[in-house]
Specification:
The protein contains nine helices and no strands. Helix 6 crosses helix 7 and helix 6 runs antiparallel to helix 9. The protein has one domain. The two termini are about 20 Å apart. The longest helix has 28 residues. It has about 190 residues and is mainly alpha-helical.
């Protein structure tokens, strides 16, 4: 996000995702393997339902938020303009899946595993969500930071509750597809 004026958002996030996955495969192979064990169908179904519910929450809260704080509308339009950069969100869908997978492996996989050993699982969810917000600071959008924190908390809770990445990965993909591709708020 910090390089968004200089580097296409899809190239930047895609490169970050590839680097993250490579580094994780080198240093955290066991953690990744345990997080990706064959998921129960219930985890995927719950993840999809949570992703849909989160999307409805965004669609409902967005008009309220711009009524309260009108500058939010410009910030959201700027974010969507970045996502419309070539190749655009529809053509970049495979890259979007890679980015979501990398984020889930890093923030809900490795981070929660590491911090759970020190703090316990629910405190690890909070720390992981706070760390998930850090890259969003470069965008300089308080709204994006709040949304990242809330999403990080929900997806982290799914990770702890269902003891794997299937539920948060499903929720994250559904939310991204609905909010960024199919039915954008701006």
């Amino acid at each position: 996000m910090g390089l968004r004026e200089d580097v296409n958002v899809w190239i930047g996030t895609g490169a970050a995702a590839v680097v993250s996955i490579v580094l994780l495969s080198l240093w955290a192979r066991a953690s990744i393997r345990s997080s990706l064990e064959r998921p129960a169908l219930q985890s995927v179904v719950v993840g999809v339902a949570v992703g849909v519910a989160m999307s409805f929450a965004i669609w409902w809260l967005y008009p309220l938020s711009i009524a309260i704080l009108p500058p939010i509308e410009g910030q959201v339009e700027t974010l969507y303009a970045l996502l419309r950069q070539p190749p655009g969100p529809i053509r970049a869908f495979p890259l979007l899946l890679l980015v979501v997978a990398a984020e889930e492996l890093v923030w809900r996989g490795l981070a929660i595993d590491v911090f759970s050993k020190m703090l316990g699982p629910w405190q690890a969810v909070l720390v992981s969500a706070l760390l998930y917000v850090l890259p969003q600071i470069a965008f300089r959008s308080p709204l994006l930071m709040i949304i990242a924190l809330l999403c990080g908390l929900v997806w982290g809770a799914l990770r702890v509750r269902f003891k794997g990445l299937a539920a948060p990965l499903s929720a994250h993909i559904i939310w991204d597809v609905l909010v960024f591709i199919m039915y954008p708020v701006a």
